[in-house]
Specification:
mainly alpha
Length: 68
Amino acid sequence: MHEDAIIELQSKWSHQEYLLQQLNEALISQQNQISKLSGKVRRLESMLNERENSNIARSDEESRPPHY
């Protein structure tokens, strides 16, 4: 019976190692996605700041066309 318990523990340990590896790979993948998205957000913020600082009028600041 003692040997069966050891085999069971080894089996559980092996399964946990596999799950840990899978979780690690998922975490790495998510971190890569977060890094890419953060870069995109920074670029979008930069583009928005450039537009705000330019002389382009915002749609709410534009005057109405002459036919109104």
